[in-house]
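Kindly review this record before class:
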Amino acid sequence: MGTAVTVIVLLVIIVGGIAYFAKAQATTRQRQLDDAKADARRLVERLGGQVLNLVGSNEPAKQALADASERYNAAGSQLEQTRTAEQAKLVKETALEGLYYVRAAREAMGMDPGPKLPEEVERERAGKVTEDRSVEVDGRHLQASARPGDDTPYYYPGGRVAGRPVPQGWYSEPWWKPALVAGAWGLGSALLFSSMFSGMSGIASAQAWESGYDAGQEDAMADMGDAGGDMGDPGGDPGGFDGGGYDGGGFDGGGFDAGGFGDF
């Protein structure tokens, strides 16, 4: 009898412990979600305030504000459907990208761009347009510049599109948009990239870009290979490591489409 009572008591303690642990975990997840949504909502509201109160005075500013408005609408839709902290993080990233467009629009109008925005690793790795370029690719005339102008009214804040880096800068047309919509680059995209950015400081080579490597990664890999040779080649060739296959835009956190700027 005593043994049976002891077993029952132990079972009650175990079940109670499991229930308490499950409740604590659920509470923690809910708190993380609430914090993440509040953080995302802050940026969405900040973006909305800019989009609703700014009017573009020239074509580059109008284009940048149109892109900012798209991100605002997408982020608002995403926020309503967010069920996890990971999804809330993607909402924040969409809103942040919209704020980069707002900042570009303000600069294009000669206004104070406002406070600096948080840095983003993929955006930094993609590099920046540092000189004016004008090229012909398959009958298309394309231009790139570090500054807005009548010939370069389309801005991109930099980052990965379909697994490959697109440098920050102003362009004559949004050549990255087909890949942004389709999720994959078409034929001839490597030639376009090579023609536009060949030899530009801080920008990946066409071969590196086509493989999805980040700007400058080839040089880093070469340095690793040289270091391995100097050390007597300890156990293999360190230069053969492929670190560029990661696609920072491929997260799948649930099941809804965020308008092309993040796949939940």
Q: What stands out?
A: Residues 2-53 form the longest helix (52 residues). The helical segments are 2-53, 59-81, 85-108, 121-126, 177-182, 189-197, 206-210, 217-230. The radius of gyration is 24 Å. Confidence is low (pLDDT under 50) at residues 216-260.
